[in-house]
Design a protein that fits this description.
Blueprint lengths: L20 H11 L11 E5 L5 H9 L4 E6 L2 H14 L4 E5 L2 H5 L9 E6 L8 H14 E12 L5 H16 L4 H17 L3 H5 L1 H10 L4 H8 L9 H9 L3 E6 L7 H4 L14 H12 L3 E8 L6 H9 L2 E4 L10 E4 L2 E4 L2 H12 L3 E2 H4 L6 H13 L3 E3 L8 H12 L4 E4 L4 E4 L5 H10 L7 H4 L2 H12 L8
Parallel strand pairs: 1-2, 1-4, 2-3, 4-5
Antiparallel strand pairs: 5-7, 6-7, 8-11, 8-12, 9-10, 13-14
The structure holds S-adenosylmethionine.
């Protein structure tokens, strides 16, 4: 265990829709908060960006914005720069530095940033590095700027902390590179579980987690098990430490978690009534959901939008249907507390309107839903992947096409979709077809095998509509 964080194995590219400015903007509108000016020259920064997939997608979708991707690992940033060069992204800056060094940077070195995001970092680094990361936020987030913070949480991860401690000790004694050591740690835990260890008897979910870990990407697994520091936090602790940096908790970037009625067991709802302390209320929610991770939004200063402007901000949000939306029939949301049936009287007219093409939330209001009800319905459609906010006007997609060619060549299963300000997944079996389409980049890209499978046809329509692939013909 010589290093605090493993940097001898690259972390795989993983896309997180919740970190994109477009997503953050839509969730903030739902929460009655002002979002970043998406068409403007906003500054977005990712701390601990890994190979930079989220940063390059954001840079390609927002040519007027400035994107800063920061990481300690030179190999990660080399990957991000290679994609940026292939796509021709002049608006992406990569910075190789640790948080301790960054926190001491001269005041004019960075920002001020409109948005700072960090995913997969806070729970994985040493306390001194975490404090430095938070100081960086305090120093370089502009007043009114927004923070997206992802971390592992009590109580859902309380037991997992014991397993991780054991795993990293076993890994430290094992032979081989990071992947072999991580695998040795898993194998040891599996033997412990098979031997009837009380820990796995008392915490059956940890046995499931162990089984799932064996199917995980080996590099991601090494980053999960080998850091010398790994800890879940109580939401109240993060509210407090970000509060010291002048940031106030707004809500979750997972829209479902902002709607108590569909994310908490009904019997727990009365306990939240009248709780005006956000740290206490969020702690109750975490207990009620047995929350294991959080993707939270904070703001430096600023005030909620007054009621009239809240509705206006929401009404102006343009939405489009995604291929995951059901073509017909009832809408069922698989929430962490079980399946929730979408009320037909509310959702059917919304889906019917969206099937005719993208429209603004204000246009959906014509179907009679009360604004608060419509707000929740929209947030649920976005959370479930049935709908997504769309950029208006659409940015020039050329950089995204070039980026997508480079992503396909690297075997990354995501396509930048600039109309969504996001990326859409590509199943591995569809990758060769997509690569062929991007290479041909024109009407001749209708290879016979592409015309057949229904799923590919649906996806193709969406990829083209959202600027991930050149249009047909
Ligand atoms: C688990 S990865 C997450 C990558 C990416 N954010 C994602 O979610 O896909 C954690 C990242 O934090 C970076 N990191 C760890 N300690 C750091 C430090 N002290 N300063 C800067 N980056 C650090 C690692 O190199 C790694 O890329």
């Amino acid at each position: 265990m010589s290093q605090a964080y493993p940097n001898d194995i690259p972390y795989p590219p993983v896309f997180h829709r919740e970190m994109t400015p477009v997503w953050i903007d839509a969730v903030l509108r739902g929460l009655g908060q002002e979002g970043p000016d998406l068409a403007g020259a906003f500054r977005w920064c990712e701390l601990g960006c890994g190979p930079g997939l989220n940063a390059v997608v954001t840079a390609a979708a927002h040519p007027a914005a400035h994107v800063t991707a920061i990481d300690l690992n030179a190999a990660h940033l080399a990957r991000a720069r290679a994609w940026a060069e292939a796509a021709g992204l002049p608006n992406l800056e990569t910075v190789q530095a640790g948080f301790t060094e960054l926190a001491e940077a001269p005041p004019d070195r960075f920002g001020p940033f409109d948005v700072i995001v960090t995913h997969g970092v806070l729970s994985w680094i040493a306390p001194a590095e975490r404090e430095a990361l938070l100081r960086f936020i305090g120093r370089f987030l502009r007043p009114g700027g927004v923070v997206y913070a992802h971390y592992m949480t009590h109580p859902g991860m309380s037991a997992a902390a014991a397993g991780q401690r054991l795993a990293r000790r076993v890994a430290a004694r094992a032979e081989g590179g990071p992947v072999e050591r991580a695998r040795a740690a898993l194998a040891f835990q599996a033997r412990l579980a098979a031997g009837g260890a009380g820990f796995f008897v008392a915490h059956p979910q940890e046995r499931h987690r162990l089984e799932a870990s064996r199917r995980q990407d080996p590099a991601a697994l090494a980053h999960e098990l080998l850091p010398a520091h790994w800890e879940p936090f109580h939401v109240a602790e993060i509210i407090e430490v970000l509060g010291r940096q002048g940031c106030r908790y707004l809500g979750s970037a997972t829209p479902l978690d902002n709607i108590d009625a569909v994310s908490l067991p009904a019997g727990t709802l009365p306990l939240l009534a009248g709780l005006d302390d956000p740290a206490l209320a969020e702690t109750v929610r975490d207990m009620a959901r047995n929350q294991s991770l959080r993707r939270d939004l904070y703001r430096s200063g600023g005030a909620p939008l007054p009621a009239g402007r809240h509705w206006q901000a929401l009404a102006e949000l343009p939405l489009a249907l995604l291929p995951a939306a059901p073509r017909r029939g009832p809408l069922r949301f698989d929430t962490p507390i079980g399946p929730v049936q979408g009320e037909a009287a509310l959702f059917d007219p919304l889906l019917a309107a969206l099937r005719r093409g993208p429209c603004r939330v204000g246009d959906l209001a014509r179907h009679g839903a009360h604004p608060a009800q419509l707000n929740q319905a929209v947030q649920m459609l976005i959370w479930s992947g049935c709908a997504h906010p769309v950029r208006s006007p659409l940015p020039d997609p050329q950089a995204a096409w070039r980026l997508n060619r480079a992503l396909c060549a690297s075997g990354v299963g995501w396509l930048a979709a600039p109309a969504l300000g996001s990326a859409l997944p590509v199943a591995p079996e569809l990758m060769p077809a997509v690569a062929a389409l991007l290479e041909a980049a024109g009407p001749e890209a209708t290879a016979p095998e592409l015309a057949t499978p229904e799923r590919l046809r649906d996806n193709l329509r969406a990829w083209r509509a959202f600027g991930a692939l050149p249009p047909e013909g």
